[in-house]
Amino acid sequence: MLALPDVRRFVARVDVREPVLRVWVAIAAVAGFVAVALVSPQPGQAAWFAGENSDSQTLVALGVETTIEREDVTVTAGYSGLPSVGNPARGSAQAIALGLVTDAGWTEGEYRCLVALWQRESGWNHLAENPSSGAYGIPQALPANKMASAGDDWASNPATQIRWGIGYISARYGTPCEAWGHSERRGWY
Questions:
Q1: Which among 50, 61, 119, 170 is placed 20 to 30 Å from 188, CA to CA?
Q2: pTM of the complete model
Q3: Residue 15, SS3?
């Protein structure tokens, strides 16, 4: 990995006025942003590195939603197509999850990852059961009775399932976006 001063020296040498180089820089930028969005869909750090002239500039971004417009090239990076979540209905499973995500100190980006993850897993149905594996509930716990550690009403209470699911994600993956990334790569979390 290049240190920050090495990156600045490298970027200072890039001259995107050459037509062939401009195409390769655009392709590399798009590929880089797509890879970042797939690997780490959470908001993170961004840094702007400028070369010695205005024609050699590079943006290094990690999971941020941003658009870069440079002459005839536009690159957009972000949450890999995660839907906007808006404000969930009061008392809904998603509202309960939003409160727990906020209590955990996680960002809206983490909440978006959680919404997408559990939409894929169960459609936010607290009675969802996978007939082939036996996974159950909003977080699709396997075995289902693992959720009893969060409350005796685990089979019928969305709040209990969500509490257990948040704890599971936190212990196993650290954040919902890490769980989402794993699910994107493996098809399960």
A1: 61
A2: 0.58
A3: coil
